[in-house]
Amino acid sequence: MLVWKHAAASLRAGIPVALLCVVRSEGSSPGRQGFKMSVTATGLAGSIGGGIMEHKLVELARAWLRESNYTPEIRRQVHRAHARTDRSGMICSGEQEILLLPLRPEHLPSVEACKRALRQSGGFRWVVTAADGPRVVADTDAGAPLSRYQPGENWLYEEKMGFRDHLTIVGGGHVGLALSRVLSTLDFEITVFDDRPALNTHLLNPYAHHKRIVSYDQLAQEVPQGPYQYVVIMTVGYRTDAIALRQLLHHQVRYLGVLGSSSKISHLLQELQAAGTDEAALGRVHAPIGLPIHSRTPEEIAISIAAELIRVRNGVAGDKVNGKW
């Protein structure tokens, strides 16, 4: 959103601006497909991976803007010291291709459309081709890939607008607020549920995209399923944690975790096991959640949970790490 906001504000003010976007990446490339930034003569927003590579391409974009060069171009960057061509100046291995797209004043409506599409949390894609500037189109194919790059003379790049990964926090207390704050910087769409209508930390949470009062015995109907769905349970106590977990135990999600001490979690899982709960379902639960870094404060706990979510998101679905799926 910051990239599109910066680009739109620059175009409205009559300031030349260029969009840089990673359209392809492989290996240990520091910039992944979809990374983007906007660049003016004196400012920028976003990143395409950092380092000397980003610096050189930012300066190239600024030179183009000074020369009123509005021809888009895709530059290959190889991150190996002994590459024969297209060396980026970095040695981290891998490579990426970056679109340099100087934006013209007539692109302002499309840039504003990108901002609106992001606020609506899905349903749109942005597309740019060798022949046309950026535009927003309806995302009518739910099974389409998140992004697509067609190389060559008539190149095309498109990507889904909005968030891929969605986190549901069940429990809007102090840790829920702290986790919302951390995850809001990590490209998660955040929903927070609580069953207490007057809970201050829930009502005043400015980081969640969606906040609702929900009875925990209705969670199965409220929480979406899918490979990009993450759920953490951190209600006010043991009883409500148990209700929430029973509702979601058989949900098909990428991550399901429960906050609590080892003794509390052990008791909860033993109770579910005694009630005949499927062992495979219990084995998929991350509990206690968070990396073991001796967290104490809500903020420290939130960071430990965020780190575990990152590890799961960046791994391969189905991998088992430290005894957890």
UniProtKB/TrEMBL annotation:
InterPro entries: FAD/NAD-bd_sf, MoCofactor_Util/Proc, XdhC_CoxI, XdhC_Rossmann_dom. It comes from Hymenobacter psychrotolerans DSM 18569. Residues 11-68 form the XdhC- CoxI domain. This is Xanthine dehydrogenase accessory factor. Residues 167-309 form the XdhC Rossmann domain.
